[in-house]
Amino acid sequence: MYNVLLNGLGGVGGVYAYVLQKSNLVNLSVIARSNYAPVKEQGLKFKSTIYGDHVVSPVGTYKTTADIESPDFDFIVCTNKALDPENLPNELRPVVTPGKTVIVVIQNGVGQEVPLQKAFPENPVLVCVTWVSAFKTGDGEVSHTVKELTVIGACYRETEAQKAADRKALDTFASILTAANSDIEVTDEIQRKRWEKCSWNAGLNPTTALTGLDTVSLFDSSEFAFGLSNKVWTEMVSIANKEGITFGDNFIEGLVKKIKGLGKVQTSMADDIRNNRPTEVEVILGNPLRLAKKHGLETPYLETLYTLVKGQDYRIKNRL
Asked: How far apart are CA 317 and CA 87, in angstroms?
């Protein structure tokens, strides 16, 4: 059995709490901030159109990592929203055992693994891209509607011994998810996969968040709406190319086809602004924008959307 700490119990965290418990290979503990009281008392209510209704009952439920006495975790799975990646190592430090604990990042955006690698050089860091639809629908309750696909890769370190440890960590975590019948893809191109997902989010999340519309309604609202998303995707591809990451020739066409096949999509950023919560604007828009500036690229559409969503974040954080 593997001792696993799940950090973050919102929509995505709720899905992986269910998956990890279902695997039967895990002793699951959770950090549940806003959900702490109901989950501590009665477990997490997980309502899924795919898996049915279940209750996830962690062996330990905590508000913060500082509340955990004598931590001994094989894996820490970060499904918390990537609101402050620079501070995440400080949050995790009390529960990371050097040379043992594997840190798994299941978050939107790009770049947030860098602070973890710097803070914990002796520990493997895995990065995941998840395609799933799930939202917190009440205190201690998560609703899930689209079966998860988890793409997993390792941030390989320098020496051959470290790379072997990273590969072992990757294979072990993949086996845990496979035991739960979760759809997974193990890849050596995880950064490309992350940029693909981040590009998708950059072209859809800000515009839906700022308008309060789902994707279908947004594109129906104006003859220019789809063109705006297309311009953002084009800018994201140019940034990724400068970072040495290349997509297929038909990448944007593939995004369009996927969007049309999904029907109405409610994005997480739109849900956050609708509920006056901070967004993941920095890892989805800010990090790519700063890379564009570094490479001398002009990305006016990305810059405009970042500025507008950042303004919403400022309003929410300052209760204006």
From this structure: 17
Contact criterion met (CB below 8 Å) for 30 and 5: yes
Sign of the CA dihedral with 219 first, then 222, 226, and 228 last: negative
CB 198 within 8 A of CB 108: yes
Pull the structure tokens for residue 24.
């039967």
User: How many helices (H) and strands (E) would you count in the chain?
Assistant: 13, 10
Q: How, if at all, do strands 52-56 and 44-48 pair?
A: antiparallel
Q: Which residues contact 137 (CB under 8 A, 6 or more apart)?
A: 47, 143
Cα angle, residue 131 at apex, residues 18 and 179 outer, rounded to 5°:
40
Separation between Cα atoms, residue 255 and residue 235, nearest integer Å: 14
- Among 175, 40, 13, 180, smallest CA distance to 105 is for 13
> What's the pLDDT tens digit per position in 41-92?
999 999 999 999 999 999 999 999 999 998 999 999 999 999 999 999 999 9
Whole-model pTM over 0.85: yes
Name which of 30, 39, 94 is nearest 62 in CA terms. 30
Give the SS3 label for residue 241: helix
Chain mean position to CA 94: 22
